[in-house]
């Protein structure tokens, strides 16, 4: 049947032109495909000479080179799949930064233990009431240091875990104060060129292990129900250190105060810790984060300020979570003389703590020996009814339980999610550890985080499983126990931390305070720990406290907010000599980062995404070279 042409029959020469045009179109298309393949091939086969130049380039003049290991074992080897990619001539952008090509000098040795937001000369300018001066007070833009924090002259790589739990090099933290001041309590001892941590504490002279066994007789610590803990006023974090073998991960914190370097000791041991204090601002953790909280003679005035500090513990405790108290005023009838306080004073303190506990709707589980243990309710059904009896503290009305970055504490009870029965866990129950790590977190299953679904959670887990497998290929130390303290600067759902569970590491999961989604609560529900942070400011830790830093998409978030040079300098401050950094970002951002870090005595290499060269995201692996300050 003939085709119907509505515009009339076609002319013969029109049909002839169409037949002649077909080979021309096919030819042009073939050339396009050929040049596309050729261009892709050229981008994925960089010359070996570029790589050899990188690996042979001198990073800096270093002191005591014999004490170091070669960075060649950390930077990936040159293979076709991991070849250095050179984008320098083709991608130039003006990200907010200082002069990127400058060589950044070392700071004076007096800054060797500099903590920018807890710097004593600056802190002393603030009020002492409620210890406000010991909270975070970060430098202004004009006060920022454009120099590298120097390690001590005889700095050595720390002991590997688990040996590091008990030993550290004295030259890395040259402080004897605690070994003298706390000699009887066995916090730390100096033995020749090293520090030994016997595991003692103010309220556990028999050692943290025996003390934890005493707790285990009262509440179950080894059945997987308790996974996350917080230690307020942690000392050298021996309680958290010995909980690790029971699969309990503890966020230990203490202020930078007269007990010099206690948090630094903890991190040098390979134990999670932060500089922090209970003063006027909320702790930088979400609501319903911890299964257990602990205070062993932590000197926090729990009964003062209308019970505000216990109210804050209530906020961060999970429903059904425990609070453990030892030290004053517990067992005051035995210890009152040694504490140099009157019996009346100690009795009044304990009575007022018990009153606050009742008002919070907690129950007292037990008081035995030196320990008192309290438990938060599973939900607020009874607590709402009790407001007829206890008018204060009232239950907060604002729905901002997770807001914890520079947020003032409140003297009202943080409301729990509603439930339909008295035995239901508010906000949803979590699985026992280790199933908890990959079970769907209640905050996701309830739909409380917009845009994050069960499917996205599963996809994120698979994504990070593949990525960490790739990291293992390009960074052999990940599988060799070289790293212990790891920081994820943009943790999202905690997929990276979950993927490295099988290694002898722990991860500080950081959720930027300006993130589109507040996911830190999800990370805690998975059984991991972390904190909020604004990366335009310094982190609350000592220098040289992390072995590996993971930064996925961080600089794309912050490049328009603050000078990325100072973010990189902060990373250098908290990274140990010969520590590593993994950046994931666009080519333009990574080229700029690499340019800046060349002036920071780092060695680095840009590589393709694990999925291949056509992914616009690339990976930059960097190593901080070994160098020390002058005595």
TrEMBL record:
GO biological process: methylation
Protein name as catalogued: Methyltransferase
Class of enzymatic activity (EC top level): transferase
Location in or out of the cell: Endoplasmic reticulum membrane; Membrane
Superkingdom of origin organism: Eukaryota
Species for this entry: Papaver nudicaule (Iceland poppy)
Main location: endoplasmic reticulum
UniProtKB keywords: Glycoprotein, Membrane, Methyltransferase, Signal-anchor, Transferase, Transmembrane, Transmembrane helix
Keyword Transmembrane helix part of the UniProt annotation: yes
EC numbers on record: 2.1.1.-
Family: Belongs to the methyltransferase superfamily.
């Amino acid at each position: 049947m003939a085709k119907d042409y509505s515009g009339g029959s076609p002319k013969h020469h029109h049909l002839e032109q169409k037949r002649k045009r077909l080979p021309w179109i096919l030819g042009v298309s073939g050339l396009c495909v050929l040049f596309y393949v050729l261009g892709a091939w050229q981008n994925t086969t960089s010359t070996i000479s570029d790589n050899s130049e990188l690996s042979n380039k001198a990073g800096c003049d270093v002191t005591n080179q014999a004490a170091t290991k070669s960075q060649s074992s950390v930077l990936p080897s040159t293979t076709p799949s991991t070849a250095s990619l050179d984008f320098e001539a083709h991608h130039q952008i003006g990200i907010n930064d200082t002069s990127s090509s400058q060589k950044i000098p070392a700071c004076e040795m007096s800054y060797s233990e500099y903590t920018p937001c807890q710097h004593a000369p600056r802190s002393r300018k603030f009020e002492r009431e409620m210890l406000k001066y010991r909270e975070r007070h970060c430098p202004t833009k004009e006060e920022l240091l454009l120099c590298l924090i120097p390690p001590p002259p005889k700095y050595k790589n720390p002991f590997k875990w688990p040996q590091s739990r008990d030993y550290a090099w004295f030259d890395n933290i040259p402080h004897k104060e605690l070994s003298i001041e706390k000699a009887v309590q066995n916090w730390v001892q100096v033995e020749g060129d090293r520090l030994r941590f016997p595991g003692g504490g103010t309220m556990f002279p028999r050692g943290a292990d025996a003390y934890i066994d005493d707790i285990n007789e009262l509440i179950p610590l080894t059945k997987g129900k308790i996974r996350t803990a917080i230690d307020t006023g942690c000392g050298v974090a021996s309680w958290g250190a010995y909980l690790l073998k029971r699969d309990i991960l503890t966020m230990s914190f203490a202020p930078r105060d007269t007990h010099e370097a206690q948090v630094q000791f903890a991190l040098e041991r390979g134990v999670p810790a932060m500089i922090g204090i209970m003063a006027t601002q909320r702790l930088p953790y979400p609501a319903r984060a911890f299964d257990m909280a602990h205070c062993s003679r932590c000197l926090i005035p729990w009964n003062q300020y209308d019970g505000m500090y216990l109210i804050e513990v209530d906020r961060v405790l999970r429903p059904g979570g425990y609070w453990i108290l030892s030290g004053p005023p517990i067992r005051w009838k035995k210890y009152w003389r040694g504490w140099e306080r009157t019996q009346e004073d100690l009795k009044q303190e304990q009575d007022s703590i018990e009153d606050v506990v009742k008002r919070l709707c907690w129950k007292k589980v037990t008081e035995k020996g030196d320990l008192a243990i309290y438990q938060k309710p599973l939900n607020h059904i009874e607590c709402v009814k009790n407001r007829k009896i206890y008018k204060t503290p009232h239950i907060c009305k604002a729905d901002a339980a997770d807001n914890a970055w520079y947020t003032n504490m409140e003297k009202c009870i943080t409301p729990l999610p509603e439930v339909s029965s008295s035995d239901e866990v508010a906000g949803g129950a979590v699985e026992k550890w280790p199933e908890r790590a990959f079970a769907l977190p209640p905050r996701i299953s309830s739909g409380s985080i917009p845009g994050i679904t069960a499917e996205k959670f599963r996809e994120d887990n698979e994504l990070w499983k593949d990525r960490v497998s790739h990291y293992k290929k390009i960074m052999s130390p990940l599988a060799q126990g070289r790293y212990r303290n790891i920081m994820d600067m943009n943790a999202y759902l905690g997929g990276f931390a979950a993927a490295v569970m099988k290694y002898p590491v722990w991860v500080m999961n950081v959720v930027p305070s300006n993130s589109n989604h507040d996911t830190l609560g999800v990370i805690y529900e998975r059984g991991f720990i972390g904190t909020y942070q604004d990366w335009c400011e310094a982190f609350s830790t000592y220098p040289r406290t992390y072995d590996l830093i993971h930064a996925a998409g961080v600089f794309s978030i912050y490049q328009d907010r603050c000078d990325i040079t100072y973010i990189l300098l902060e990373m250098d401050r908290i990274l140990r000599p010969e520590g590593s950094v993994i950046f994931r970002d666009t080519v333009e951002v990574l080229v700029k980062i690499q340019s800046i870090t060349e002036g920071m005595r780092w060695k680095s290499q840009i590589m393709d995404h694990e999925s291949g060269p056509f992914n616009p995201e690339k990976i930059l692996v960097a190593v901080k070279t070994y160098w020390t300050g002058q005595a």
